[in-house]
Amino acid sequence: MSLTGNLTRALGLGTRPRTPASALYASALGLARDPAWFSAGGVPDTLDGRFDMLALVLSLVILRLQALGLHQTEADLADRFAEDMDASLREIGISDLAISKQVGNTVGALGGRLTAYRSSTEGEDAELADALIRNLYRGEASDPRTLNWAIAQTRALRQRLSRADATALAEGRL
User: Fold this and answer.
1) How far is CA 76 from the centre of its chain?
2) N or C, fewer C-beta in 10 Å, the chain?
3) Are 26 and 12 a contacting pair, CB within 8 Å?
């Protein structure tokens, strides 16, 4: 089972033109699939864990796009996410009748994570820890070492994104 569909779709290749959103999405997928999150970070290497990692990375990218006023790229990135979730859900056998509802649920879950990470990444570590426990670890208290690792990596990614300009993001460089 693949959360992200096939590599061709993920990279925005094939019949779809490569856009800033598809380049960003491919980069976000790469960051979200970094094995360190699942080993050192203790994120469950499950379908849900992979989704939660993608939601974390996309939330941070979207926050940066919003800060730069790149609203069209933000909307295109959200569309790319919805397309990929549709393809991934079909790949794991969700019926055509249930796809719209399930894709809506995943888009809604991304929106919820975006809200949680928006309010927590600039605050205290305790706020970010709460958001990560709720959204990345699905409410399960994590080992303090893995949670601290995830906090540090989330802050480092946010810091790295804060230095990314519109050109870098358009090229998919995170």
Assistant:
1) 14
2) N
3) yes
